[in-house]
Design a protein that fits this description.
Blueprint: H1 26-42, H2 46-54, H3 58-61, H4 65-82, H5 89-104, H6 110-121, E1 138-141, E2 160-171, H7 173-179, E3 184-193, H8 194-198, E4 207-213, E5 217-219
Antiparallel strand pairs: 1-2, 1-5, 2-3, 3-4
Helix pairs in contact: 1-4, 1-5, 2-4, 2-7
Length: 220
């Protein structure tokens, strides 16, 4: 999915208006709520969610944004509905309790939104090792990518850039999507010259900045 940013045939100009609503139709808000509820209570994380999304047929993926979310939910919940998987009792009990709380109080207090929910569904996590790179270091994106879900875009693979920021550490998506294990890796913002990515056909004076996990990088 992250390859789309480097493929001009995938999307055109981003249409944006200041007054654009968060949800264009009521069903979009419902899908967002269902997805957040299901992932928080039953266990599928956002990285495994994206891994399923990557495998959607083109006609579904290129549909409405929340239509993609709905397609993923249908696939992920299908195993429970069909009986191929059974939800643990603790998860079911937690779902029932959460549903009751949502019905009686659909809006979470500000303290919950600011301090509690980010720790439950957020990606920030302390790493157990020092960062390998610092601001100003020249780096190269490793030449190979993992076969499964990865946040390493193909169009920067093997390309040289410069670290312009260290973003702390976060849950490493590649491992999290497959094993649901929250391994923390350092995250950097790396700047690439347009010509490095697209050659002579790049727009002059173009710089692309991408956040990349440390395992994707090597000294240049």
């Amino acid at each position: 999915m992250h390859d789309l940013g480097g493929r001009r045939e995938s999307f055109g100009t981003v249409a944006h208006t200041v007054t654009e609503p968060v949800f264009h139709e009521e069903w979009e808000g419902r899908v967002f709520g269902i997805a957040t509820f299901v992932q928080t209570v039953f266990g599928p994380n956002f990285d495994s969610f994206r891994a399923v999304m990557e495998k959607l047929p083109p006609e579904e993926y290129h549909g409405p944004y929340y239509g993609r979310w709905l397609s993923v939910l249908e696939r992920m919940l299908g195993s429970y509905v069909s009986g191929r998987k059974s939800a643990p009792r603790m998860k079911v009990a937690g779902a029932a309790f959460a549903a009751q709380r949502i019905i009686t109080r659909p809006t979470l207090p500000r303290f919950m939104n600011v301090h509690v929910m980010p720790r439950i569904v957020g990606g920030a996590k302390r790493a157990h090792h020092a960062p390998q790179f610092g601001v100003g270091d020249p780096v190269r994106v490793r030449a190979e990518r993992d076969n499964g879900h990865t946040r390493q875009p193909a169009y920067v693979t093997g390309r040289r850039g410069v670290v312009v920021d260290h973003r702390g550490a976060a849950v490493f998506a590649d491992v999290h999507a497959a094993a649901r294990t929250k391994v923390a890796e350092h995250l950097y913002t790396v700047a690439f010259e347009g010509a490095e990515l697209w050659g002579e056909g790049a727009e002059p004076n173009t710089e692309i900045r991408i956040e990349l996990f440390e395992p994707y990088l090597e000294p240049a």
